[in-house]
Every structure is written in structure tokens, then in C-alpha cells.
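Appendix B. Extra example for self-study. Work through it before the problem class; the solution is given directly after the inputs so you can check yourself.
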Amino acid sequence: MNRDMIKFLGFAALILAVPFALSGGYLMNVLVFVGIHTMLAIGLNLLLGYAGQISLGHAGFFGLGAYLSGILTATYGWNPWLAMPLAAAVVGGLAFLIGFPILKLKGHYLAMATLGMGIIMYITFNETIGLTGGPSGLSGIPNIAIGSLTFDSDKKNFYLIWSFTLGMILLTLNLANSRIGRALRAVHDSEVAAQVLGINARLLKVQIFALSAVISSIAGSLYAHTMTFISPASFGFNFSVELLTMVVIGGLGSIYGSFLGAALLTLLPEFLRAAQDYDIIIYGAMLMMMVMFMPRGLVRGVPDLLRKLLKKRGGKHA
Amino acid sequence: MLRLKNIHTHYGKVHALKNVSLRLLEGEIVTLIGANGAGKTTILNTISGVTPASSGEVLFENKQITELAPDRIVKLGISQVPEGRQVFKQLSVEDNLDLGAYLRYRSREDKASINEDREHIFTLFPQLLNRRKQLAGTMSGGEQQMLAIGRALMAKPKLLLLDEPSMGLAPLVFQEIFRVLHQLRHEHGTTILLVEQNAKAALKLADRGYVLETGKIILEGSSVELMDNTDVKRAYLGKEKG
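Solution. C-alpha cells for the complete assembly:
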């Protein structure tokens, strides 16, 4: 067994032990969201951190997955286990088709195009009232069940969501360390150099865009089945930006960084509730400080900071 | 081995190559010399498919490759060392080399032979050996150039396209690189198309050469002939008489 595997198993054990330390209740519910956000952040990180391509429309893929699952199960009575892969396939296929024209664009232009894509999806959720219920939302989405075990409590959902999240972490860790992961980072550094080594940069970018959309869609399906109610407000531009912030704060190009970013941005607002009306100001200030002092993200910034502090101390003694 | 027939290449509206024809025989080292903006890099990019020709034909081993995408062309056996090296700065030396073999991963045997080839690159450029885990961006220009060449060789090319390997390097480093190119031809029979600003060194190494001016080939001949040509001497070798 190699070091990466040991690290992963340690992480998984730690996560799965959490419910034993908590008596359940509200915090457990928040941790379910940490799991969903981790999946989303990882999906976006593959695109942004590894391949170096931005997307301001990922909330759209998340929403599309949620709505496809929601509509198929609530309105048409499908089994959630059938609806989820179908939704993922549709979203992946759609991302693949959109990806070809828009990933030709770079930098600000790509940001604009993905922004537009997200907004179109958001408007679609709002306006196709017959299907989605429009602004008032879609309710009556069933919980996921395995046989007679229905995932209807926070604790059960915690295990459901986190088995998916941990599976996704394992999968993406392997991908990142493979030849494909190397090729993605090569495309990030220099597209021309990657091309003359035989990497089909254009196709690779589109493929990773589609994979990232599939991950978002699965997270969306799971979200729909745990919440049992969805409305367009959860899938707008603001949420796309929040996802982007999770990836950057956590650390670009680091899978565990995506977890840290997702955890921080999900938990922080909950803890800041105590500060009442000032919570938004404190939240904003903390994000600014983190970007200033840990530009490489939490996952690298915290060890860097500790090292610096230790060095300073060592220097004084010497 | 390689033939360019009446190639025209455009960047948008700029007509960068005008009716360029040239040929390379197997095992030859051929150099392209010319001033900045003459179209030397464009010729390499046209061959490798990065900036495809707007008209004309590129033939490699009697196969049409004019319209092929860059990755297909690498598969056929043409590797390019791009201008300004363009190593992947955020990746280790080893990862850079492995990326050169991107198209070769098929089976376990491939993995073994890739590892073997990586070690072979380290014997060609011993300096890289101590730095195998180091990030490529933290090495000197000369080492990065060695890595860029090593990376291209990892694809096991029949034809190597080299774009200004001497750019910004100290004379000693650059002699070392030319020594390796010489060795490559002798030991592996690699055919090389070399674009170079340092015409003198390039002609010394090459069998033949082409002289480019504003997108056109104005002169061709053996290296000895070109070195004796008064125009070449005046324009590129920096002396009035031989």
C-alpha cells in the first residue's frame, strides 16, 4: 500500500467517525452539505486547478442534475438509482457538446461564455414552470432507498453523501496522479508544448469539462434526494461564485484542498451566526485575509505559515 | 523522408510562408537559417500541425500529413522542441519526461520501456539526473533546454524538429547540446531539422541548409557551400571575407 492510499484511508476513517462524536441534529445536517459541496468543489477543481480552465456556470450543471433527478422521480415515479445515472449522462453529454465551441475561448472570454451558460440554465429552471414548478420550486422528491433502508434522517444521509464523496475523492486522486492528470497540468502550463507532445489539448479540455459536469450532476441528484425540495434560487450565479471561492481558498490543484475550502465556506457562516448582523462583514474580511496571506490555498498555506512561525522562533533562539 | 511542396501558410492575414519547398533525407541534419521573422519557426509549426498550411503539401514517409492534427503527427514519428523550450514549469523533471511518452502508454511492457528510455535520457544529459524530482521551472535555461530535448525524444521520434536550441544559452552549455545532437544522429540515426540563429554553429553540425528571407527560401545547398557563400557570410556569419 502506498502513502497516498494510507492518507486516504486515514481521511475516510476520520470522516466516517464524525457521527459518533456528534449527537446528530443541526450540525449533522450542515456536514451533509459539506459533503455535497466537496464533490462540487472537486469537480470544478479538476477543470480550474488541473486543466486551468475557468467556469462561472457550474451551479447550472448542479441544478440540472438536481432537476432531472427531481422531475424523473417526483413527477414520473422513477427509481432514484435509475434517475441519477441518466441525469449524469444527459448533463455530461450536454457539457461535451457545449464544451467544443466554448473551450476554444480563453481567459475572460471563457469566463463570460460559462457565465452565460449558467444564466441560461438558471432562467430555464425558473421559466419552465410546467416541469420544474418555476420559482416556487419542486417538492415531493423521494429519499433514496436501498431495499427497506430509506435515507431519511440526517445521520443516514451523512453516510450516503459521504460514501459518494469519498468515492469521488479516491477516483479523482487516481486521475490526478495518472498520465491524464499530468497531461492536464501540461495543458495548463503550455497548450502548444502539450500539443507537440501528442496531447490532443482541445479534446482533453472538453472531456474534463464533461467529467466535471457529471460530478456536479451527481452532487445535484444527491442534493435533490436529501432535501426532497429544490428551487432555482440554489442554482444561480451566486452559487457558481461560491464554488469558485471554495476551490481557490482550499487550494488550486489539490483534491484535499477542495474539501478544506468546501468545509470552511460551509461551516464558517454557521459559526458566524453568533455575530448576528455583522456576520457578512467578518466573513468577507476573513476571505480577504486568507487570499492575502495564503494565496496558494489553505492546503499549502497553513503548513507554510507554521513553518514560517517555527523558523522565526528558531532564529531567535540561535 | 520529409517533403514540403509549395507550402503557403497564413497567420490571419499575414502571409508567413510563400511557396516553400524543401526535403529531408533519412538520417540527415538540415538547418534553416534566416533573420527574425523570416518564417523559420512557422515552417516547423506547419510540419507539426500547430499552424497548418493554407495550401501546398507536407509529406512524411510518402504520407500526406498536411491536414493532420498535431497529436496524429506526433504518433507518426515527428516531435518538436518548441521555441523558448516551454518545459512544464510546475511539474518535476521526471513528469516532464513522462509526458513526452504520452502516446506510448498501452501495456505493461510500454511502461517498462518508457522507464528504460527515461534512464537513457539521463545518460544523454547526466546533469538532469540529480534534478529528477526538481520542478522544471527552477532549473537553469540550459538544463531546461536539455529537458525539452529529452522530453521530445521520449516520444521516440524518427524526425526531430528543433527550434533555436541555443537561445539565451552560454556558449559552453550550447556546445554540450550540440554534442548530444551529433551523438543522436550517430547512435540512433535520428533525422533532425534545426532552426538556429547561430548560423555558424548550425552549419558546422548540419549536412545541408536552407536560407530563408521574409517567408521565402532564397538559397539552399550543402553546409560547406553555404559557409562559402558570400551573401551568407555577410548576412549571417558576420564576416566580410573567408
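Self-check: Strands of chain B lie at 2-11, 14-24, 29-34, 55-60, 63-64, 78-81, 159-163, 191-195, 208-213, 216-222. If your reasoning did not lead you there, revisit section 3.
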